Amino acid sequence: MPCFSNKQSMGINMNMASFSFFLLFLSFFHVADATVKIGVNYGRIANDLPAPGKVVELLKSQGINRVKLYDTDSAVLTALADSGINVVVALPNELLASTAADQSFADKWVQANISHYYPKTQIEAIAVGNEVFVDPKNTTKYLVPAMKNVYNSLVKLNLSSIKISSPIALSALQNSYPSSAGSFKQELIEPVMKPMLEFFRQTGSYLMVNIYPFFAYSANSKDIPLDYALFKENQGVVDSGNGLKYTSLMDAQADAVFAAMSALQYDDVKMVVTETGWPSMGDENEIGAGEENAASYNGNLVKRVLTGNGTPLRPKDPLNVFLFALFNENQKPGPTSERHYGLFYPNEQKVYNIPLPMETLNSGQSTPVSGNKTETPVSGGEVSKTSVGHTWCVANGNAGEEKLQAALDYACGEGGADCRAIQSGATCYNPNTLEAHASYALNSYYQKNGRGTGTCYFGGAAYVVTQPPMYGNCDFPTGN
User: Fold this and answer.
1) Which pLDDT score, from 0 to 100, does residue 355 have?
2) pLDDT for the residue numbered 480
3) Which residues of 380-403 are buried (b: 16+ CB within 10 A; e: fewer)?
4) Which of 89, 192, 359, 450 has the fewest CB atoms nearer than 10 Å to its CB?
5) What parts of the chain have a pLDDT lower than 50?
6) Which residues are catalytic?
7) For residues 140 and 131, is the Cβ–Cβ distance under 8 A?
8) Is there a contact between 325 and 343 (Cβ–Cβ < 8 Å)?
9) What pLDDT, on the 0 to 100 scale, is given for residue 321?
């Protein structure tokens, strides 16, 4: 059992919920609420998908308010109008050469595909090309000139608040392990990476990166622990170059990109993970593909992003992620996995049972780690039978001791939660851990406030579960 300070082991002394902890709690809530972002990629390489209007209804029903497209399809952009959903659109690779060569071409494209729909359709960014460096047509030389021309077009139309970027694959790195040795391929640095990062710096934009731990794990499953790839508990890996400890492969891969940017002196440019996911089915040689692992990866990723924590190298920059993808796409070429990254089947049923990204961010719901089962694991406790109609609030063990202590102090202090049961010798004192005590206190606050939206968040320090929490013999009240 972990050993805590006297204050932690006692649960809370009502007179010690200090103002400094209250300010700390508020800062956590503000940072996570303002900057933690999870969206979903809406690809359409399929012949059996719902009509765009139905897709927008699905997105809204699941609370998803960010979506990334791979084109500027008129029917899709029209359906997204007045939906409250923020949209990233794309200028396809095949238009890069024309856009780079002719400002008037860029002007016409922006007028027809951006200003025609904006602001009714809330376009927040334009992805100019997609993974251009691996495009067999060799369009890399057109990338930065095309981005600059599109930006010039936006400026003419007073739309420069729309960001310009371009997703790159991890294959743009020469080195990615250890993370501290991250570097871009030499042949990309002067022609494209430096001018592109400088463009991002000048326009206040960010680097888009597609990160798939699945690929690294599948190719190196003997060397990479599955739990490390799926955000599960593991011993972690210490970077020999900077001494930082990594407990997830995605964090390590993201920091390899940050290290590559730092080597070029662009530490101030931010990053968005524009694609990440795990396939629910694959070929025999695609080790790790399957529903259970897909549910674990996406569910645990959402829970990890919800904490508001950045990576070990950039701890103050919350992760900004788009899951891949909304649907299974039956016409995508390549191995079986390519057609099975979807969160949904084309009939709008979930492929596996996890709460979706913004649903979790908005209401704090838990993240099951098994495929089609509906069990809900409670951090620090056991899985119990479903109790229909009730919800509880529990501490997010991944949030870190500082956040949990701040949330505990606030709940039992200014928040007015009933924390008598976690005092020394009381019924819920055991187990004597910070997570158990915080769970009881945050649940008391949540129930006292009518289980309202946002009352089980605490800047990512808590989330809602649909199973009664089980910490020792402690009963958690429902408020009913």
Assistant:
1) 61
2) 56
3) bbeeeeeeeebbbbbbbbbbeeeb
4) 450
5) 1-35, 357-388
6) 131, 275
7) no
8) yes
9) 96
